[in-house]
Amino acid sequence: MLAQVTCYQSSAIIESVEKSVAKFGYYPQLDGLRALAFFLVFSNHLKPLPDVSPIISPAWVFLQSLMGWGWMGVQIFFVLSGFLITSLLLQERADKNRIDLPAFFIRRSLRIWPLYYLMILINFLILPLVLSHGSLGFGGPVWSAMCQTYLLPFLAFVGNFWMPEHYGVKLPLSLLILWSVCVEEQFYLAWGFTLARFKTFRALGLLLVVILMAAAVIRAGLYFLSRDNGAFYFHTLAQMDTLAVGAIIALLRHLGQLPAATISRYGVLFFLAPVAYYSFLALAVPNVGANHPSQIFVFTGNAVFSGCLLLSLLYWRPASRWFSLPLFVLIGRHTYAMYLTHLFAFILAESMLGGRFHFLGDLGHWLLHTLLAVLLTALFAFLSWHGLEKWFQRLRKSFV
Prior knowledge:
Blueprint (H helix, E strand, L loop, with lengths): L1 H23 L3 H17 L12 H12 L3 H25 L4 H30 L10 H15 L3 H7 L7 H4 L2 H19 L3 H26 L4 H4 L5 H15 L5 H6 L1 H18 L10 H21 L1 H7 L2 H8 L1 H19 L7 H36 L4
């Protein structure tokens, strides 16, 4: 009897989630997942942790290693994009028997372009004005090389292809971070056309499996052919397994072929598997960056375990509740602006602190710098939303 009740409750939860998604296309818990992905990236860009007492040094080293793997948050973002974009387009095709590609591209552009192009304006025009006496100032060697090499590619959302080929050209970190937005924009374009043209779900599923399996081979080829550590990280094809995992989950859910009851019953395992994987990497492979050749195949693991985390949030009620907490949802809704501006926050926080507050010690100064960077990032996101993004969000509703 208890098993029957549990099964019934599990089915009711799943049915409720499915109806909510079908009707609104919105998952509040995935805003919480966006918040997690952002804070992973944020931690990766923090200053190294200062030395502490030998008593807690092992835990400190482990925490430092966890932060070193924080770049995996970008791949969580990619899995989310693959899932959400595929879900929305498949639902539109089912409802209308077609996909309105112009409306889809306009909606995506109104979401991505305003802040993206503002960041380009800041990096190529405003920063050179502020730093007019440095190498990044107008006419300076670094600024000139940056403009000649990267301005047009980033304007056209292909800057990520130029970065491995021109690795010696110095870039502000606040511009370099736009590479992932280029990958997203290319994905929207290619995947929108693909979903609008595919003939059968079987063919679409086969394509996704091929993409998932080919990504590691592509990464290996990019690395060993170019001998450039950046190539297999920034190249769009090298990141396609993360996007494919999200799309596969969306396709199976759309076809009703996900073992939803099983995932719900064993949701804790789907949730803990990525945690164990992340912790194992931090313990076994410390201090390895995203561009290290060992990541050629680790990326596939990142994609698969990020998919497990996504499934747990969709079908395991405790995880769904935790990640749907109002604070997490609020942060998740603003992660785009926070992601694009947090490196400015680091730079400004360091400038504001200067040589002051060293009486707090290394740890105190690190904590103060981190807190100030968090507050500045939140402020930038607030200003971005109220000063720019929300006006374009209102305009997007005309193309739903």
